[in-house]
Amino acid sequence: MLLYELDFKMIVDQACRAAEEFVNIYYETIDKRRRVLPKLYMDKATLVWNGNAITGQDSLGEFFEMLPSSEFRVNTLDCQPVHEQATQGQPTVLVVTCGIVKFEGSKYRYFNQTFLLTTHAVPTNSLPVWKIASDSFRFQDWAS
Amino acid sequence: MGDKPLWEQIGTSFVQHYYQLFDTNRPQLESIYTEESCLTWEGEQFHGKTAIIQKISSLPFHKIAHSITAQDHQPTPDSCILSMVVGQLKADDDQVLGFHQSFLLKGFNNAWVCTNEVFRLALHNV
């Protein structure tokens, strides 16, 4: 295997480890600690929820508060490193999940979610943390 | 389309172009990828234009048609566009299957290329 491809494989492995950890935290937080969920987003992050755009931590906080309590189960997780040509050098990972979710008062539904995660320096922490820059959510069966 | 934000117009045009080529002439999709592009197809990773086109061109069906149920586009902090598509497809005489596909689009030299792409069939609906 070319050295270049080995390097790439290492970058993919790193990206996927970060993504898996993040996804576990994300769905646990949305199900059990909804109030702190906006902290997983960057200040000016955008979530497009079934076609409706919500931007900024404050608006996200209001939105998540209105959302009925949830039970998420992730079935598949895909992730890729995003090349620095597209990100001005900021480490970025594309994460795509699909699974089922039950919101209180509704039946189980299939969903798809796509995240862009970037690292974010924290003054009190020597390691940068991953935060959501962009997020798209859809019910797979949204029309029914 | 005049009132729609730019990223929405670009994303919608890309999606239309992509599925039109995918359904009629897959090797021509080459022009949307670079040597750095990544594709994850049903969990399998492909890196670079050549590997991606080889995969897409060798998919085992003669005829395919996509129908888009919903598409979402949003600009990212790095001036890329994140696009997510949910829809249904029919390959040859197989039954109709749900799918979802995500793209990250980047403007390079006055053209939009796909730097990242993830495809999954929604087999749970079977």
UniProtKB/TrEMBL annotation, chain A:
- Organism whose genome encodes this protein: Erpetoichthys calabaricus
Q: Which UniProt keywords apply?
A: Cytoplasm, Nucleus, Protein transport, Transport
Protein name as annotated: NTF2-related export protein
Q: Which GO terms describe its biological process?
A: mRNA transport; nucleocytoplasmic transport; protein transport
What domain of life is recorded for the organism?
Eukaryota
PROSITE patterns per record: NTF2_DOMAIN
Query: What is a single cellular component term in the Gene Ontology annotation?
Result: nucleus
What function does this protein fulfil? Has a role in nuclear-cytoplasmic transport of proteins and mRNAs.
Automatic annotation (TrEMBL), chain B:
Q: Cite the Gene3D superfamilies for this sequence.
A: 3.10.450.50
Subcellular location(s) per record: Cytoplasm; Nucleus
**Amino-acid biosynthesis found in the keyword field:** no
Q: What domain of life does the native source organism fall in?
A: Eukaryota
**GO BP terms in the entry:** mRNA transport; protein import into nucleus
| Keyword Membrane found | no
In this chain the NTF2 domain maps to 10-121
**Alphabetical keyword list:** Cytoplasm, Nucleus, Protein transport, Transport
- Pfam families annotated for this entry? NTF2 (PF02136)
Main subcellular location: cytoplasm
Annotated Gene Ontology cellular component terms = cytoplasm; nucleus
Q: PANTHER family, from UniProt?
A: NUCLEAR TRANSPORT FACTOR 2 (PTHR12612)
Q: What does this protein do?
A: Has a role in nuclear-cytoplasmic transport of proteins and mRNAs.
Name of the featured protein: Nuclear transport factor 2
What taxonomic classification does the UniProt entry list for its organism?
Answer: Eukaryota, Metazoa, Chordata, Craniata, Vertebrata
